[in-house]
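Example 9 (inverse folding). The structure is encoded as follows.
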Protein backbone atom coordinates (compact mmCIF):
# COMPACT_ATOMS: atom_id res chain seq x y z
CA UNK A 1 0.00 0.00 0.00
CA UNK A 2 2.92 2.42 0.46
CA UNK A 3 3.39 2.66 -3.30
CA UNK A 4 -0.22 3.50 -3.96
CA UNK A 5 -0.26 6.21 -1.29
CA UNK A 6 2.79 7.83 -2.87
CA UNK A 7 1.21 7.78 -6.33
CA UNK A 8 -2.28 9.02 -5.48
CA UNK A 9 -1.60 12.63 -6.45
CA UNK A 10 0.67 12.12 -9.44
CA UNK A 11 -2.02 12.81 -12.03
CA UNK A 12 -2.72 16.27 -10.67
CA UNK A 13 0.52 17.85 -11.91
CA UNK A 14 2.44 18.09 -15.16
CA UNK A 15 6.23 17.98 -15.38
CA UNK A 16 8.41 19.08 -18.27
CA UNK A 17 10.87 16.95 -20.19
CA UNK A 18 13.16 17.98 -22.99
CA UNK A 19 10.66 16.73 -25.58
CA UNK A 20 7.13 17.11 -24.22
CA UNK A 21 5.31 17.82 -20.94
CA UNK A 22 4.32 14.56 -19.23
CA UNK A 23 3.79 12.81 -15.89
CA UNK A 24 5.69 9.58 -16.59
CA UNK A 25 8.01 8.74 -13.68
CA UNK A 26 7.54 12.24 -12.32
CA UNK A 27 8.50 13.87 -15.61
CA UNK A 28 11.70 11.85 -16.14
CA UNK A 29 13.41 13.60 -19.11
CA UNK A 30 14.78 10.25 -20.35
CA UNK A 31 11.23 9.25 -21.32
CA UNK A 32 10.48 10.62 -24.75
CA UNK A 33 7.37 10.50 -26.89
CA UNK A 34 5.00 12.57 -28.95
CA UNK A 35 1.54 14.12 -28.92
CA UNK A 36 -1.27 11.68 -29.65
CA UNK A 37 -3.12 12.32 -32.89
CA UNK A 38 -6.49 12.14 -31.11
CA UNK A 39 -6.47 14.73 -28.33
CA UNK A 40 -2.84 15.82 -28.20
CA UNK A 41 -1.84 14.05 -24.99
CA UNK A 42 1.65 12.65 -24.37
CA UNK A 43 2.28 9.08 -25.60
CA UNK A 44 5.70 7.73 -24.62
CA UNK A 45 7.90 5.75 -26.93
CA UNK A 46 7.20 2.14 -26.00
CA UNK A 47 3.47 2.69 -25.46
CA UNK A 48 0.91 1.46 -28.01
CA UNK A 49 -2.15 3.69 -28.36
CA UNK A 50 -4.74 3.19 -31.09
CA UNK A 51 -5.90 6.19 -33.12
CA UNK A 52 -9.43 5.59 -31.78
CA UNK A 53 -8.24 6.26 -28.21
CA UNK A 54 -8.66 9.83 -26.94
CA UNK A 55 -5.87 11.28 -24.77
CA UNK A 56 -6.32 14.94 -23.91
CA UNK A 57 -3.46 17.40 -23.86
CA UNK A 58 -3.11 17.29 -20.05
CA UNK A 59 -2.77 13.49 -19.77
CA UNK A 60 0.08 11.01 -20.24
CA UNK A 61 0.45 7.45 -21.52
CA UNK A 62 3.73 6.02 -20.24
CA UNK A 63 5.97 3.16 -21.46
CA UNK A 64 4.58 -0.37 -21.43
CA UNK A 65 0.97 0.69 -21.87
CA UNK A 66 -1.46 -0.66 -24.48
CA UNK A 67 -4.69 1.26 -25.13
CA UNK A 68 -7.24 0.28 -27.79
CA UNK A 69 -10.83 0.79 -28.88
CA UNK A 70 -12.71 3.81 -27.43
CA UNK A 71 -10.63 4.31 -24.28
CA UNK A 72 -10.52 7.90 -23.00
CA UNK A 73 -7.79 9.37 -20.76
CA UNK A 74 -8.54 12.95 -19.75
CA UNK A 75 -8.13 15.61 -17.08
CA UNK A 76 -4.50 15.31 -15.89
CA UNK A 77 -4.67 11.50 -15.77
CA UNK A 78 -1.95 8.93 -16.41
CA UNK A 79 -1.59 5.30 -17.50
CA UNK A 80 1.69 3.40 -17.02
CA UNK A 81 2.56 -0.20 -17.96
CA UNK A 82 -1.10 -1.25 -18.13
CA UNK A 83 -3.66 -2.46 -20.68
CA UNK A 84 -6.96 -0.65 -21.27
CA UNK A 85 -9.58 -1.75 -23.80
CA UNK A 86 -13.18 -1.20 -24.89
CA UNK A 87 -14.82 1.92 -23.38
CA UNK A 88 -12.69 2.50 -20.28
CA UNK A 89 -12.52 6.10 -19.02
CA UNK A 90 -9.66 7.39 -16.85
CA UNK A 91 -10.39 10.96 -15.80
CA UNK A 92 -9.77 13.90 -13.47
CA UNK A 93 -6.44 13.14 -11.89
CA UNK A 94 -6.80 9.33 -11.92
CA UNK A 95 -3.81 7.04 -12.45
CA UNK A 96 -3.48 3.41 -13.59
CA UNK A 97 -0.17 1.64 -12.94
CA UNK A 98 1.98 -1.46 -13.08
CA UNK A 99 0.29 -4.34 -14.83
CA UNK A 100 -3.36 -3.34 -14.43
CA UNK A 101 -5.80 -4.73 -17.00
CA UNK A 102 -9.08 -2.89 -17.50
CA UNK A 103 -11.92 -3.79 -19.89
CA UNK A 104 -15.51 -2.97 -20.82
CA UNK A 105 -17.21 0.14 -19.39
CA UNK A 106 -15.04 0.80 -16.34
CA UNK A 107 -14.79 4.39 -15.07
CA UNK A 108 -11.84 5.56 -12.96
CA UNK A 109 -11.88 9.20 -11.86
CA UNK A 110 -11.49 11.80 -9.15
CA UNK A 111 -7.87 11.16 -8.17
CA UNK A 112 -8.33 7.38 -7.86
CA UNK A 113 -5.23 5.18 -8.23
CA UNK A 114 -5.24 1.60 -9.55
CA UNK A 115 -2.11 -0.55 -9.22
CA UNK A 116 -1.68 -4.09 -10.59
CA UNK A 117 -5.42 -4.78 -10.65
CA UNK A 118 -8.02 -6.38 -12.94
CA UNK A 119 -11.20 -4.34 -13.50
CA UNK A 120 -14.03 -5.21 -15.87
CA UNK A 121 -17.78 -5.01 -16.48
CA UNK A 122 -19.10 -1.60 -15.41
CA UNK A 123 -16.93 -1.01 -12.35
CA UNK A 124 -16.79 2.54 -10.95
CA UNK A 125 -13.75 3.76 -9.00
CA UNK A 126 -13.65 7.38 -7.86
CA UNK A 127 -13.10 9.97 -5.16
CA UNK A 128 -9.49 9.19 -4.27
CA UNK A 129 -9.99 5.44 -3.87
CA UNK A 130 -6.81 3.33 -3.95
CA UNK A 131 -6.85 -0.18 -5.46
CA UNK A 132 -3.81 -2.40 -5.08
CA UNK A 133 -3.45 -5.88 -6.67
CA UNK A 134 -7.12 -6.84 -6.58
CA UNK A 135 -10.03 -7.75 -8.86
CA UNK A 136 -13.25 -5.74 -9.26
CA UNK A 137 -16.01 -6.87 -11.62
CA UNK A 138 -19.70 -6.70 -12.48
CA UNK A 139 -21.01 -3.31 -11.34
CA UNK A 140 -18.86 -3.00 -8.22
CA UNK A 141 -18.50 0.54 -6.86
CA UNK A 142 -15.42 1.68 -4.92
CA UNK A 143 -15.48 5.33 -3.91
CA UNK A 144 -14.37 7.91 -1.38
CA UNK A 145 -11.06 7.43 0.39
CA UNK A 146 -11.35 3.64 0.30
CA UNK A 147 -8.18 1.53 0.34
CA UNK A 148 -8.76 -1.90 -1.20
CA UNK A 149 -6.29 -4.64 -2.09
CA UNK A 150 -3.50 -7.00 -1.23
CA UNK A 151 0.17 -7.60 -2.01
CA UNK A 152 1.48 -8.52 -5.48
CA UNK A 153 2.56 -11.88 -4.04
CA UNK A 154 -1.02 -12.73 -3.04
CA UNK A 155 -3.59 -10.91 -5.21
CA UNK A 156 -6.63 -12.56 -3.61
CA UNK A 157 -8.98 -9.62 -3.10
CA UNK A 158 -12.22 -9.61 -5.12
CA UNK A 159 -15.09 -7.12 -5.18
CA UNK A 160 -17.97 -8.10 -7.46
CA UNK A 161 -21.68 -8.05 -8.13
CA UNK A 162 -23.24 -4.77 -7.03
CA UNK A 163 -21.03 -4.50 -3.95
CA UNK A 164 -20.20 -1.00 -2.67
CA UNK A 165 -17.03 0.04 -0.82
CA UNK A 166 -17.17 3.64 0.41
CA UNK A 167 -14.49 5.31 2.56
CA UNK A 168 -13.57 1.92 4.05
CA UNK A 169 -10.42 -0.25 4.16
CA UNK A 170 -10.54 -3.78 2.78
CA UNK A 171 -7.16 -5.51 2.77
CA UNK A 172 -5.78 -9.04 2.68
CA UNK A 173 -7.77 -12.07 1.52
CA UNK A 174 -11.40 -11.05 1.10
CA UNK A 175 -14.42 -11.54 -1.17
CA UNK A 176 -17.15 -8.89 -1.13
CA UNK A 177 -20.00 -9.61 -3.52
CA UNK A 178 -23.72 -9.45 -4.36
CA UNK A 179 -25.29 -6.33 -2.77
CA UNK A 180 -22.98 -6.16 0.22
CA UNK A 181 -21.79 -2.75 1.44
CA UNK A 182 -18.68 -1.73 3.34
CA UNK A 183 -19.18 1.84 4.53
CA UNK A 184 -17.83 4.58 6.75
CA UNK A 185 -14.47 3.86 8.34
CA UNK A 186 -15.08 0.12 8.59
CA UNK A 187 -12.02 -2.13 8.29
CA UNK A 188 -11.75 -5.65 6.88
CA UNK A 189 -8.42 -7.43 7.34
CA UNK A 190 -8.40 -10.93 5.87
CA UNK A 191 -4.88 -11.84 6.94
CA UNK A 192 -4.08 -15.53 6.71
CA UNK A 193 -7.67 -16.64 6.08
CA UNK A 194 -10.41 -15.28 3.84
CA UNK A 195 -13.29 -13.02 4.82
CA UNK A 196 -16.57 -13.16 2.91
CA UNK A 197 -19.23 -10.45 2.90
CA UNK A 198 -22.16 -11.15 0.58
CA UNK A 199 -25.90 -11.05 -0.14
CA UNK A 200 -27.29 -7.88 1.55
CA UNK A 201 -24.87 -7.64 4.47
CA UNK A 202 -23.59 -4.23 5.60
CA UNK A 203 -20.40 -3.40 7.48
CA UNK A 204 -20.30 0.21 8.62
CA UNK A 205 -19.17 2.88 11.08
CA UNK A 206 -15.97 1.75 12.85
CA UNK A 207 -16.68 -1.98 12.67
CA UNK A 208 -13.76 -4.37 12.17
CA UNK A 209 -13.85 -7.83 10.55
CA UNK A 210 -10.85 -10.12 10.77
CA UNK A 211 -9.78 -13.74 10.35
CA UNK A 212 -12.12 -15.98 8.35
CA UNK A 213 -15.45 -14.34 9.16
CA UNK A 214 -18.56 -14.76 6.98
CA UNK A 215 -21.15 -11.99 7.05
CA UNK A 216 -24.16 -12.46 4.79
CA UNK A 217 -27.96 -12.42 4.60
CA UNK A 218 -29.29 -9.17 6.11
CA UNK A 219 -26.69 -8.89 8.85
CA UNK A 220 -25.53 -5.41 9.88
CA UNK A 221 -22.22 -4.94 11.69
CA UNK A 222 -21.75 -1.38 12.89
CA UNK A 223 -20.53 0.99 15.61
CA UNK A 224 -17.23 -0.34 17.03
CA UNK A 225 -18.12 -4.01 16.78
CA UNK A 226 -15.26 -6.48 16.19
CA UNK A 227 -16.04 -9.77 14.42
CA UNK A 228 -13.41 -12.51 14.40
CA UNK A 229 -12.66 -16.19 15.16
CA UNK A 230 -14.47 -17.72 12.21
CA UNK A 231 -17.86 -16.10 12.86
CA UNK A 232 -20.72 -16.92 10.46
CA UNK A 233 -23.47 -14.29 10.79
CA UNK A 234 -26.52 -14.05 8.54
CA UNK A 235 -28.96 -11.94 10.55
CA UNK A 236 -29.09 -9.33 13.29
CA UNK A 237 -27.86 -5.80 13.94
CA UNK A 238 -24.60 -5.76 15.92
CA UNK A 239 -23.45 -2.57 17.59
CA UNK A 240 -21.00 -1.24 20.22
CA UNK A 241 -19.01 -3.93 22.02
CA UNK A 242 -20.45 -7.15 20.60
CA UNK A 243 -17.82 -9.86 20.14
CA UNK A 244 -17.91 -13.05 18.01
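The amino acid assigned to each position is listed next.
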Amino acid sequence: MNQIKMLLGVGLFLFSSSSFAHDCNFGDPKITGKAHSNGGGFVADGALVANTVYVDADSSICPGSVLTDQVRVVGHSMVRNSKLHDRVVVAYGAAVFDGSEIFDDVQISGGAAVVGSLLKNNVVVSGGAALDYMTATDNAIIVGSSVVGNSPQSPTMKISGHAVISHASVVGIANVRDYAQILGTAVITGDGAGIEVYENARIMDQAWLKVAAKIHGDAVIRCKTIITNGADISTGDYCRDDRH
